[in-house]
Amino acid sequence: MNAYAKYASVKKMSDNKNIKVVVIGGSGYAGYELIRWLMRHPKAEIVGVFGPESELGAMDSFHPLLTKTQNLTQELFAPEKISALKPDLAMLCVPHKVAMSYVPTLRELGLKVIDWSADYRLSDAAVYEKWYCEHTDHAGLKDAVYGLPEYFADDIRSASLIANPGCYPTCAGLALAPVLKAGLIEPTQIVVNAISGVSGAGRTPSLKQHFPERNENFEPYGVATHRHTPEMEEILTKISGQDTSVLFQPHLSPMTRGMLATIYATPTAGTTQQQLMDALQGTYENAPFVRVRTDELPATRYVSDTNYCDVTARLAKGKVILFSALDNLLKGASTQAIQNMNLMFDLDETTGLY
């Protein structure tokens, strides 16, 4: 039996009980958004914030916007302190490699876990190690469920460990998956051309993120080497049932937040504009946080500070062009994690997200 099997049963929330959450890594941008949204969630309670020795202190010292709204202090990660709080869930906003050093301990304490790093997104340890580093938690990797609610809600409901998707794979995947699954585009030679706000690079200062370097500057990076590529290919292959290959080219835009993807694909014989739109609308008709745009094109301003992803499709000059936009800190990270939390604890997935 798996070492963590006894923790796999879903903890259901009674009408009068809150989900007790510990946040691991609250000092970054996504951590701030998580705290801000959890504070107004009607069924969640933050019982502790923990992090590394280099980032300890009152949360309003990291995020002054939190002043007079909470009394949270980021303490040194300590299993005994976490256990004493009797939490139901740990939400990890930490980098890859760091996450897998915490997750086994948290699961041994009986907590459910939602991890935002890449450590549990790729099901094959060899693929992970090719793009990242040695993987030290193969049991967790085996158990992890990919947290894209629009496609894996049933699995998420019964999961003990969720791999919260990357922002780029969420943005591209929500546009591509319906038309791939419907057989309307070829699964190879897909080009994902995407831009992100600078917050996607995190809060740690660097020359590349220095204001004179970023302001009035739009540039590509990670040519053919970006680590989200295998995540996109794996999840699209799983959803569509076809081996899918993607050429992914990210760009940094001189804005704080937001993400826009323009995706080019080859239509299969007979594909029409109406079929493309029907595939999107049919797939997302009952998905509360995916909006299919019919007239105006997706734009970052329409999804900023929300959990929405806007998508649409066009057929032009023998190519399918898909467009997708979301807030990289929210549907690309923090609020998608809360959407997953809602499903894990048997709440309506929209709870606390409007």
Characterize the structure shown.
- The protein is 31% helix and 21% strand.
- Mean pLDDT is 92; it is low at 1-14.
- The chain is of the alpha/beta class.
- The strands form 2 sheets. An 8-stranded mixed beta sheet has the order 3-4-2-1-5-6-8-7, with helices on both faces. A 7-stranded mixed beta sheet has the order 10-11-9-12-15-14-13, with helices on one face.
- It has helices spanning 29-39, 59-62, 79-84, 98-108, 125-131, 138-143, 149-157, 167-181, 211-214, 228-240, 273-284, 334-344, and strands at residues 19-24, 44-51, 57-58, 73-76, 89-92, 112-115, 145-146, 161-163, 190-196, 219-220, 246-252, 259-265, 290-292, 309-316, 319-326.
- It is built from 12 helices and 15 strands.
- It has 2 domains: 5-164 and 333-344, Rossmann fold (3-Layer(aba) Sandwich), CATH 3.40.50; 168-326, Dihydrodipicolinate Reductase, domain 2 (2-Layer Sandwich), CATH 3.30.360.
- Helix 8 (167-181) runs parallel beside helix 10 (228-240).
- 49% of the residues are buried.
- The radius of gyration is 20 Å and the shape is globular.
